[in-house]
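Can't paste images in this forum, so I'm doing it all in text. The chain is below; anyone willing to post the predicted structure tokens underneath?
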Amino acid sequence: MLYLRPYKRTDAKTIISWCENEDIFRKWTSDRYDSYPINEDDMNYKYFDCNGDCVESDNFYPMTACNENGIVGHFIMRYVDSNPRILRIGFVIVDDKKRGHGYGKKMIQLALEYAFRIAGAEQVTIGVFENNKSAYHCYKAAGFHDVHQEQQEVCELFGENWKVFELAIDRKEYFSITE
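Text version of the structure:
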């Protein structure tokens, strides 16, 4: 059984260990950290001391996904532009050794459950790099749909332009899938 709980400082060591190379790290964090690798203090500083780089106070909610054997995944949620109706999921990562067991999809489904049933969101959004096909398919399987973008966001990493696909799901869509 998979469940969510608030992120704890001690989770950082496990989560960071999943980033075996900078490519994995950047697919997880984009350009939000200046250097690679990071350590637990770096992650906890960003999360607790910098509020996840959110300008608004109390707008950064890191979560950890666990099963009976321990931590299997992690993500954050934040309100978009301090709008309490739109939640954004980010920093999604699953232990690579546990891929293929449905943990990513289940973790995202639990995040959506929280967003719509507890936080009262009207919409949840998520972004994914075009070169992260497995994450893209995971989000689509969880119910997200592609959002038309007038101008696609691009992030320069490794001297390349990584395109970001935007996805969303609204409250009505979510409840039509789950009920």
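The chain has six helices and eight strands. The chain has a mean pLDDT of 95.
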